[in-house]
Design brief:
Elements lengths: L4 H18 L3 E7 L1 H4 L9 H11 L4 E7 L5 H11 L6 E5 L2 H6 L3 H16 L4 E5 L9 H18 L2 E3 L4 H4 L4 H8 L9 H20 L1
Parallel strand pairs: 1-2, 1-3, 3-4, 4-5
Helix pairs in contact: 3-10, 4-6, 6-7
Amino acid sequence: MTIHKASAGFFAALSLIATAACAEPARIVAFGDSLIHGFGLIQGQGLVPQLNAWLESAGIEAVVENAGVSGDTTAGGAARIEWTLEPSPDALIVLLGGNDLLRGIDPAESRRNLDRILGAAVSRGINVLLVGHEAPTNFGMEYKLEFEAMYAELADLHGAVLFDRVFGPLDALGDRTQVRLKYMQADGLHPNQYGVAAIVEELGPLVAKLVEQ
């Protein structure tokens, strides 16, 4: 059977339309601790649902899945990363380290665990967004600098997108004491729904970048 060029073009265009219509949204796994899990927040207020709402409003074809475990450390994350990545998602958001800070865990150990997590993702061809923490000075300035530096170092090593400080968007809103009262829960460790919204406003564009990659 002979197909004219015009007809061939029509069928090619039809095929592209059908493929686009059947395309699944990008699957992103948010991997971390209580900040991912949504500790202290009712349904819809946590980071994952607010991030999904942000992506939808921006017209980004992606769905973020919640793989947060409250209280998890980088060691706990390293122990569960392999099965979390089966089947492989299109992208991975990693937000871990806060509980390491609370326990005063050696930054070298935290770095090894995060390296394992990012390495597991990159070896599968999964794009990664790494979210960092600002360390307090409780354990000394050397500890603080070493802990904070590992996020940029690991992002560079593994070619990950970096969001350097999870609470950076809150600190940028003004006086830290007043901001924490307005945007944090009573425990002073977890953001309330307004704090999450402020974080998502800056995190969202980086997640969109991750999807584009």
